[in-house]
Amino acid sequence: KAVPPGLKSKLESLYRDGYVVLNDVLNTDTLTEVRLALAPYIRNGKCAKKGRNNFEGHKTNRVYGLLAKSRVFDQIAANKKVLDIVDCILI
After folding, report:
1. Helices 80-90 and 5-17 sit at what angle, rounded to 10 degrees?
2. Over the range 69-88, which residues count as b (16 or more CB within 10 Å of their CB) and which as e?
3. pLDDT tens-digit map of 30-50
4. In sequence order, what E strands does 1-91 have?
């Protein structure tokens, strides 16, 4: 499958760095909802759970199973920009 021109640099970043930054995935209202959904798991800027190994990082804050915690995370997983990247990787 041909990669759309706008995604080529995003995929290159993903393969090179292991992550990609997608701008404008969350609007202000959704970001507020995300923060509210995470609030029970984060206190004073710190999560109750820390990374468990070298891969995760022992000092990183972790909140697992986001899709099970709030429907607001569905909006991120189903975002067109996110799905376009996933389609390029899986198809």
Report:
1. 70
2. eeebbebbeebebeebbeeb
3. 999 999 999 888 876 666 777
4. 42-43, 46-47, 49-50, 61-62
